[in-house]
Amino acid sequence: MVTINKTFISDLRRLQGKPVEYFDTAETGFGIRIGKKGQVKFLIDYTLLQYDPEKGIAKEKRFRKVFGSWHRDKTNAQINIFTADDARKHVRKMLELAAEDKDPFSKSTAIRLRTH
Questions:
Q1: Cβ contacts of residue 111 below 8 Å, gap of 6+?
Q2: How far apart are alpha carbons 27 and 106 in whole angstroms?
Q3: With the C-alpha atoms ordered 36, 42, 45, 50, is the resulting torsion angle positive or negative?
Q4: What is the C-alpha separation between 28 and 64, in angstroms, rounded?
Q5: Handedness of CA 56, 45, 19, 26 (dihedral sign)
Q6: Are 45 and 31 spatial neighbours (Cβ–Cβ below 8 Å)?
Q7: pLDDT tens per residue, the chain (116 residues)?
Q8: Are the C-beta atoms of 42 and 91 separated by less than 8 Å?
Q9: How far apart are the first and last CA of the chain?
Q10: CB neighbours of 29 closer than 8 A, spacing ≥ 6?
Q11: Quick one: CA dihedral 107, 109, 110, 111, positive or negative?
């Protein structure tokens, strides 16, 4: 069982080598990627329903994207640096948009996320 928090990330940073991803078991779609040199990036994994006009059908498309970097004690959403707790709150907002088939990374929704 993985809970992404300050302690979990701090312990993982010591295991440098090859990139690895972990996903939170309590918050579906929330994850981290530990890079070769120990850098920590926050991930979101989500699905959107997309319409294919050529085929006339809608199908699900899965996305996994980085939405910020980890900092032990500070959050600055303007430059996408988050603590683990703040990243969890941010990903919840993005997953709510994805549940409504709105891409959390489109320009219009990204602006809304930062102003709330």
A1: none
A2: 22
A3: negative
A4: 12
A5: negative
A6: yes
A7: 889 998 888 887 666 667 889 999 999 999 999 888 778 899 999 999 888 888 888 888 999 999 888 876 666 666 678 888 999 999 999 999 999 989 998 877 665 555 44
A8: yes
A9: 31
A10: 23, 44, 45, 46, 91, 95, 98
A11: positive
Q: What is the full DSSP assignment across the chain?
A: ----SHHHHHHHHT--SS-EEEE-SSSTTEEEEE-TTS-EEEEEEEEEEEEETTTTEEEEEEEEEEEEEE-SS--BGGGTEE-HHHHHHHHHHHHHHHHTT--TTSHHHHHHHHH-
98's tokens: 């994805």
CA 91 to chain centre: 6
